[in-house]
Design goal:
The complex is a heterotrimer of chains A (439), B (86) and C (375). Chain A is 31% helix and 23% strand. Chain A is α/β, with parallel strands linked by helices. In chain A, α1 packs parallel to α8 and α3 runs parallel beside α4. Chain A is globular and about 60 Å long. The chains are: A alpha/beta (439), B mainly beta (86), C alpha/beta (375). β22 of chain A pairs antiparallel with β16 of chain C.
Chain lengths: 439, 86, 375
């Protein structure tokens, strides 16, 4: 395997829209720019697959920019540890390249780690074929045939429509879109989009595609049943409950930011998001953040923030002046999203006593709900102790019980023990360390 | 990279388009579930983006691999039903 | 407001405080427990939960053996989440010198009624196939066990509560007064006797006592059932554990009932930060890899640290504080607090009731090091 560079002037974590924009802008200065992502291709979640089959104009433009810029892309690479300012330990996650561990050093770091879906526990949510909305879309993009499958898309957020449209395009029979937000808030949301021509056009295009799909507001799944896998979804709207048979339930309750790495580095968080100034600087010198981990604002905001961060990290903040008014407009959009898709209180009573909240350790809701805090529950019930490190149940219990997950310790993601040994050895070698398979 | 790749899922050869993840290959092969939870229940993927660890299986003898993050390569050996007594 | 009044007030609901509470409540005493954070959330959560008989000194042996017997007796009552597992310990020798130490260790244990079995190189590899080949052997101590200590602490607190004990949690004790304690919310709790079982926090209430925080690291893996079957500890652990000053690491791995592997151990003094110390963690792992090369391939899911209360003579402080008739210490257990919690509780209870215990209490009395301490 070819030895790869270890030092970057600007290192960007996450190759979604924010990371791509940051990398492109940073590279304009001639700085040595590295972009890494745990996926094999660039695009992140929202532009997954766009590098092979571009469909969005915006994605195509940025991917072209990226292709012509001098940026080193480290695919299938995951950050495991932050040793000290300027030093990260990463490992390859794909099997193709073997499993290697190495240290990367940087002058400036831009965190573009994005967001994941919020999953809320309800009876039956652990059945196979109950999936995230973005999750099912990602799976279809990575090879799952969906033609003629009956799918219910549920949860909340603008992602539901995009997912439904995508699944339909691939031949799925989308039986219903169940949006928990009430109609009046969605109407207000649509109205405020009237001034955003691009967003409105996009929304209309999607609506046209989905014209024959029932779209229910103030509606959410309350139970899923099936023998060994999903067969039936029970839904509620108002006092009315009914059931639908389907092959897949694609269900996500909007997004939660991926702040684990930022927290490990010590960046200040506020309200669960990484706090940044107008230049996307975090509280830690030399560390910037852009995109969804600073606030859920959508693709356009992510690109804008990525651009600002890319310029600021290469000491060309002057280039960001024209981007600031746009940033303010998009901040407004972010707060609009938040208001529109705020989760209704009824969702807190989705899990019953027997519902598993921690999917790694199979911990039932009844066991955790009387504990005083996340840590109390974790220590005494194992909730959050599994390999996902509480990423799924932590976000869920934050909504259900108002808990905050505890501090982040290495490894940022579960990783071979060896990674931590290498991470800490004082004469850390930037060279590759080969890693045999565990048998 | 050829257009299709043949991998082994639980000992059975399955051909998938190149660019398919190990997780999608497992589902294409018709495996009833990807893993068994610590309490013994069948599980499939949830997030499909490397976060939830529900898609863990044994890939090329490496246990606890997140199959949604792994692209199929020729002759890849994938074993589902990873289960441990809790 | 009426102040709660107890016969015994225990400060700290770690494993030691919890055991003291359970023992006192069992004898019908009116017990209160004050916990600043959560039950079993301090050093209790940063220990391995290894119930081990030690042979450092006669006093250490007496307390660990007595405690181990109490744990074995209690084991049938323990709920499943305490994960009691009588897996035994294997003290692993890495060279001929250590192998001769194995023989001495066996004699020490056997002459005191503790079953122990020498494993030669072949037998060792037979029972623990993950260990590298070529190790000279080890000593199997089959009556040692492991538990998950935070749940054990909670079980003991609940036992005490079922016999009338009251838990005040979370409440921080700011001051010990002649008639009880003052809390950070301005309230007071009145008690006839007070037991300080607050681990390294004890020094905040008794600035004069020589208990130093000793930092330790732990790492836990995903599930690999059968990867190791006994708690494996390098015999050299005894050498490294003796030092009160230097930093050290030792190979120490434990199979959890879940199939996870829990890896220790490190010792550092004079560290304020609870952050994971990367070089220390790396040294700890490298040491373990010398015994188990395949360990490096297991998936690590979490690392964490904790502070244990260490005393200069490596024996806990259990008993009345000289000059303070109704003030008792139950701290300074360092890495053995989980094992010795039950024995400590019996010693303490009997001192409160002015009774004799099955083992001599003198070696652990605070008076051995302090002529007088001012609270």
């Amino acid at each position: 395997m070819a030895s790869r560079p270890a030092h970057f002037d600007v290192l960007i974590i996450g190759a979604g829209p924010a990371g791509i924009a940051a990398a492109c802008c940073a590279s304009e200065s001639g700085a040595r720019v590295g972009l890494l992502d745990n996926n094999p291709q660039i695009g992140g979640q929202i532009w997954r697959g766009e590098s092979q089959h571009p469909s969005h104009i915006e994605a195509r433009e940025w991917l072209q920019k990226f292709a012509s810029a001098k940026i080193e892309f480290l695919a299938s690479t995951e950050v495991i540890d932050h040793l000290e300012p300027g030093r990260l330990v990463v490992q390859s996650v794909g099997m193709q390249s073997g499993d290697d561990v190495r240290e990367l050093t940087y002058r400036n770091l831009i965190l573009c780690t994005g967001a994941r879906e919020l999953f809320l526990p309800f009876p039956g949510w652990t059945l196979p074929n109950v999936m995230g909305a973005g999750g099912l879309q990602a799976l279809v993009k990575s090879g799952l045939p969906i033609a003629d499958k009956k799918v219910i898309v549920a949860g909340t957020g603008p992602l539901l429509l995009a997912v439904a449209a995508h699944l339909r395009e691939h031949g799925a029979e989308v039986r219903l879109i169940a949006e928990q937000a009430p109609r009046h808030r969605l109407a207000r949301f649509a109205l405020s989009l009237a001034f955003e021509r691009a967003k409105l056009a996009q929304a209309f295009a999607i609506r046209r595609q989905l014209s024959s799909v029932p779209y229910k507001t103030s509606c959410w799944p309350i139970r899923a049943t099936g023998e060994g896998k999903l067969e039936t979804v029970f839904l509620r709207t108002g006092a009315h409950t009914w059931q639908e048979s389907c092959d897949y339930l694609a269900c996500g309750f909007h997004l939660v930011p991926n702040t684990e790495l930022a927290a490990l580095i010590g960046c200040e968080l506020r309200g669960g998001f990484v706090q940044v100034d107008d230049s996307q600087r975090t509280s830690i010198a030399g560390v910037f953040a852009a995109g969804e981990l600073t606030g859920i604002g959508g693709v356009e905001a992510s690109i804008g923030e990525g651009q600002i961060a890319g310029y600021a990290a290469t000491d060309r903040s002057g280039s960001t002046a024209s981007l600031l008014p746009q940033k303010q407009r998009l901040d407004h959009f972010a707060s609009l999203l938040k208001r529109t898709f705020a989760l209704r209180d009824e969702l807190r009573s989705l899990p019953d006593s027997e519902t598993l909240v921690c999917r790694c350790e199979d911990v039932k809701f009844a066991r955790i709900r009387n504990h005083s805090s996340w840590r109390d529950s974790k220590l005494h019930t194992r909730c959050g102790m599994g390999p996902c490190q509480g990423r799924i149940c932590g976000a869920a219990t934050e909504f259900l019980l108002g808990w905050r997950a505890d501090s982040v310790r290495p490894p940022v993601f579960a990783a071979p023990v060896q990674v931590l040994a290498i991470a800490g050895s004082s004469q850390s070698q930037p060279d590759l360390v080969s890693h045999e398979e565990f048998r | 990279m050829p257009d299709t790749i043949t991998v082994n899922v639980n000992g059975t050869a399955v051909s998938v388009p190149s660019g398919t993840t190990a997780l999608a290959a497992i589902l294409i092969a018709g495996a009833p579930s990807v893993r068994r939870s610590v309490g013994g229940s069948p599980r499939g993927p949830l997030c499909a983006m490397g976060v939830c660890f529900e898609c863990r299986a044994t890939v090329n003898h490496r246990r606890h691999s997140r199959t949604c993050q792994i692209l199929c390569t020729p002759e890849m050996d994938i074993r589902t039903g990873e289960q441990v007594d809790g | 407001m009426k102040l709660p009044v107890y016969e015994v007030l225990i400060i700290g609901a770690g494993i030691v405080g919890a055991a003291c509470a359970a023992a006192c409540a069992r004898e019908g005493l009116e017990v209160g427990i004050v916990e600043a954070d959560i039950v079993g959330g301090g050093a209790t959560a940063a220990g391995m939960g290894h119930l081990v008989v030690m042979d450092d000194s006669e006093a250490q042996f007496a307390l660990t053996r007595y405690s181990q017997t109490l744990w074995r007796r209690l084991s049938e009552q323990l709920p499943a989440d305490v994960e009691y597992d009588g897996c035994g310990t294997i003290w692993v020798a890495s060279d001929a010198d250590e192998m001769s130490a194995v023989v001495q260790k066996k004699q020490f244990y056997e002459s005191r009624g503790v079953p122990a079995q020498i494993l030669d190189s072949h037998q060792l590899h037979e029972v623990e196939q993950s260990l590298r080949e070529g190790l000279p052997g080890g000593l199997l101590v089959p009556e040692d066990a492991v538990i998950y200590a935070p749940c054990a602490a909670r079980f003991l607190v609940e036992q005490a509560q079922s016999r009338g004990a009251q838990l005040h949690c979370p409440r921080v004790v700011t001051e010990i007064a002649p008639d009880g304690v003052r809390l950070n919310d301005g309230s007071s709790i009145v008690a006839q006797s007070i037991v300080v079982a607050a681990g390294t926090w004890s020094t905040r209430l008794f600035p004069g006592i020589d208990v130093r925080p000793r930092k330790g690291h732990l790492l836990i893996t995903d599930r690999y059932p059968g990867f190791v079957r006994h708690q494996l500890v390098e015999l050299g652990y005894l050498k490294s554990a003796h030092s009160f000053i230097s930093e050290s690491v030792a190979f120490n791995i434990q199979p959890r009932k879940t199939g996870q592997m829990l890896l220790g151990s490190s010792r550092q003094f004079d560290k304020d930060s609870s952050e994971v110390d990367h070089p220390m963690l790396a040294r700890m792992i490298s040491r373990a890899e010398e015994f188990i090369p395949n360990l490096s391939r297991l998936s690590a899911i979490r690392t964490w640290t904790g502070f244990r209360a260490a005393t200069p003579d490596k024996l806990p402080l259990v008993g009345p504080v000289p000059g303070h008739e109704n003030l008792f210490l139950a701290t300074g257990h360092e890495g053995l607090g989980i094992t010795t919690s039950l024995g400590t509780a019996e010693l303490l209870l009997n001192q409160l009731l002015r009774r004799e215990t099955e083992i001599p209490a003198a070696p652990y009395l605070p008076g051995r090091v302090y002529e007088g301490v001012h609270a």
